[in-house]
Automatic annotation (TrEMBL):
Residues 192-353 form the RsdA/BaiN/AoA(So)-like insert domain. Residues 3-406 form the RsdA/BaiN/AoA(So)-like Rossmann fold-like domain. Keywords: FAD, Flavoprotein. Gene3D superfamilies: FAD/NAD(P)-binding domain, HI0933 insert domain-like, Translation factors. Pfam families: HI0933_like (PF03486), HI0933_like_1st (PF22780). InterPro entries: BaiN-like, BaiN-like_dom_sf, FAD/NAD-bd_sf, RsdA/BaiN/AoA(So)-like_dom, RsdA/BaiN/AoA(So)_Rossmann. This is NAD(P)/FAD-dependent oxidoreductase. Its cofactor is FAD.
Length: 409
């Protein structure tokens, strides 16, 4: 019976272990933390956005780096199969806005527990607090691992599923990249992805804690549009975060390293500028004797009101019936294009995932086996694969973990 070693007890590692054990393999999972699924526990704000319910073809559109490489993975273990897999293990699921799939209970711990119980049922041995220092190879083949304690463990195949370097507190410290390099693999440039962004303007701090729903955002580099999306975002003491911002960071991050970009927020995307002007006019007519600052209550959340009034350039004490057409149109444009200067990305400690990783050119897309070292497999975030928010990154972990487990011999 082949002995398979899985290095890393996150989403991809646990899926690989389950899949290999279901094929009757002797599986040992090595995890350096004191428990499994530490990062999985905090995904989706602790609710665990398992996957996305989109058609399989649409999943590729959500992948930012190397979508074509995932063809075999996504079709070998589809999002429907992922949902079915967890339902079969007793984790009931539900679909929310944007096709996001969550456990019905809203607890990521249920997902981890289901995987742990299935591994136990299948006889997977789990060794916690066990740090792998090196992948052992001989004559171009993986032969096992050496632990930090110096102990050697022999194996017929090794699956590396160590994650990236985002959220280092969960144990993601980039070990897999080192293993890959030591085995002759190229590791592409790494950077934080799905990460909040910093802005220059003073008013970001004033807006801290304000969440905006149903807004449109556009990010531009001069006149060139780099990204556009509709959804929700949040202001922080340093800048902006939330789903649309995190997804944008994966697309514009590289450019943002070179120079600042402009974030345009459309606060009323359902209305054209003309329709919004009529709406503002109605507000003004209903409040024609009031001061400007007291006549715009219904247009903004309370926290945004003083900032918008200041940026409008209209004196706050000015009577509404004295506001000129030019002033009003400038105010309407401000609502449709509330702009901020993006100056940079936050660090790995706040990034959901890592962009970059083991070059997929050196991995067989149909098996996840290294093209350089026989019996060495890679799965999950350690690979140069990343996607926008919405459950797609976990789908990558499940699918690549499944393929590695299904082929390791």
């Amino acid at each position: 019976m082949s002995k398979i070693l899985v290095v890393g007890g996150g989403a991809a590692g646990m899926m690989a272990a389950v899949t290999a054990a279901r094929r009757g393999k002797n599986v040992l999972l090595l995890e350096k933390n004191e428990k499994l699924g530490k990062k999985l526990f905090i995904t989706g704000k602790g609710r665990c956005n398992l996957t996305n319910s989109a058609e399989v073809e649409e999943l590729f559109n959500a992948v930012v780096s190397n979508p074509k490489f995932l063809y075999s993975s996504f079709y070998s273990f589809t999002n429907d199969q992922v949902i079915g897999f967890f339902e079969e293990l007793g984790v009931k699921t539900k679909v929310e806005r944007g096709g996001r799939v969550f456990p019905e209970s809203d607890h990521s711990s249920d997902v981890i527990r289901a995987l742990e119980q299935e591994m136990k049922r299948l006889g997977v041995r789990i060794s916690l607090r066990t740090e792998v220092k090196e992948i052992l190879t001989e004559d171009g083949r993986a032969k096992g691992v050496r632990l930090s304690s110096g102990r050697m463990i022999a194996a017929d195949a090794v699956i590396v599923a160590t994650g990236g370097i985002s959220y280092p507190s969960t144990g993601s410290t980039g070990d897999g990249y080192r293993f890959a390099r030591e085995c002759g693999h190229k590791v592409t440039d790494l950077s934080p992805a799905l990460v909040p962004m910093e802005v220059k303007e003073w008013y970001a701090k004033e807006l801290m804690g304000l969440s905006l729903r149903n807004i449109g955002i556009r990010i531009t580099d001069g006149k060139k549009k780099l990204y556009e999306e509709f959804g929700e975002m949040l202001f922080t003491h340093y800048g902006v975060t939330g789903p649309v911002i995190l997804s944008a960071s994966s697309i514009v991050g590289k450019k943002l390293k070179e120079h600042p970009l402009t974030l345009h927020i459309d606060l009323k995307p359902a209305l054209t500028e003309e329709q919004l002007d009529k709406r503002v006019l109605r507000e003004f007519e209903a409040n024609h004797n009031r001061q400007f600052k007291n006549a715009v209550d219904s247009l903004f959340p309370a926290k945004l009101r003083p900032v918008a009034i200041e940026l409008s350039g209209i004196p706050e004490e000015k009577k509404v019936n004295e506001v000129t057409k030019e002033e009003r149109l400038h105010f309407v444009r401000l609502i449709k294009d509330f702009s901020m200067t993006l100056t940079g990305l936050r660090g790995y400690h706040e990034a959901i995932i890592t962009k970059g990783g083991v070059s997929v050119k050196e991995i067989d897309p149909g098996t996840m086996e290294s093209k350089l070292v026989k019996g060495l497999y890679f799965a999950g975030e350690v690979l140069d694969l990343d996607a926008v928010t919405g459950g797609y990154n976990l789908q990558i972990a499940w699918s690549t973990g499944y393929l590695a487990g299904a082929n390791a011999d």
